[in-house]
Amino acid sequence: MSLRVLIVDDDGVIVLLHKRIIMNSGLCSDPMVFSNGKTALEYLHAHVQEASRYLILLDINMPVMNGWEFLDSIKSTSLAMQVKVIVISSSINSSDREKAGQYTEVINYIEKPLKQDQLTGFSIS
Question: 4-aspartylphosphate is carried by which residues (predicted)?
Answer without folding.
Answer: 59
